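Q: My collaborator sent me two sequences in one message, no labels, and asked for predicted structures for both. Can we handle them in order? The first one she listed is below.
A: Yes, handling them in the order given. First sequence, followed by its structure tokens:
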Amino acid sequence: MRKPCCEKKETNKGAWSKVEDQKLTDYVLQHGEGCWRSLPQAAGNFGEDEEDLIIKLHALLGNRWTLIAGRLPGRTDKEVKNHWNIHIKRKLLLMGIDPNSRRSLLSPTPTCNPNPATAATSLLDLNLDLTIAPPPNQS
């Protein structure tokens, strides 16, 4: 007998919040009904704020997924790594940003000795002033 998908460590088994209800409703309206076991993985459930934090932490820590996931409550290193590789890298590429170097893919690359002053202009302006706060109270 296989275990239900909700028997994962740190999974909220209580009542759903209004935000979670809306995410589920939106997902079913967009993708239709299907297999409940695959829903969480297919829906993704990463918010824009989480993606921004992952990008900033990746710029600081590289591929240290365990350290990055440690700053995202309820996320595993595998979830974060998969989300980075499947969604965030593609998103950055579509924005014209190299996900590994965070340099613009649109600016020309120097052919001889690069000038540090001009090289700095091609870097993505990342604010790495990271803060950690408890989640907001849910009513």
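Q: And the one she listed second?
A: Here it is, processed independently of the first:
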Amino acid sequence: MILEDTLLRQEKWRFLDQTTPNKAFDALQSYATDDTLCRFIGGEISPPTVRGWVHEKTVSIGIQDTKLPKLKEGIQFLQEAGYRVVLRNSGGLAVVLDKDILNVSLILPDVKKGIAINRGYETMHTLIQDMFSDFNQVIKAYEIENSYCPGSYDLSIDGKKFAGISQRRMEKGVAVQIYLGLGGNQGERAELIRSFYEISGKDLQEKYHFPNVDKNVMSTLSLLLGASLTVNDVVLRLLNSLRFYAGELYSSTLTAEELDTLPKYYARIVERNKKIM
């Protein structure tokens, strides 16, 4: 599915591989990395970048989750279950991160007339369709009600959600982020988030809507496609798909200038987490 009119078609794509879980590199550092990249890519100092990242046993909550009346009890429940809890700076509600969840960020410059929000989502949808086009399955984008972190661009096969997309916009850069449930026990993940919302008192307030999480509307790509997919398998698919669109695709690490700036954005998100947690 090679499309001419797509944000995937860039003169250069840089790939950052952070898919090996590392206790010294947590989810907050991941979100700070995307903020750093937004600054440099939005300023057209660095090229458009795709970043793959994986973290062990973390629940990433959204801003709206902080409105839960008994959030502290919910966080304690997650921590006692062995999960680190972080507050991210992109949209959406609580999601689970673990070794079988691949996260991908597409960071692009928001130049000229700007990138419409839906266009960012559609770009990620196109990329995922491309990556798995050899399977005889249709990947649709629409809200899967009663999934965790429901949104209008949930990705699903036969009504079963396996991925969710969010965006972060700052410093003239756009980070389109997706989590892909590749394997593992999606039922357990769904039950974890369902319990988190119950314990956090989602029904004790009426101002905000939180999902009644149903594990039966969620699944993994491995189950939906009938194939055993590892993080490495899917990263290879990611790179093969991008090669069709990129004038040049190369692997790299953060530049020295980006590394010097990263601590500033990390300090910001750590401070935000201190206020909430």
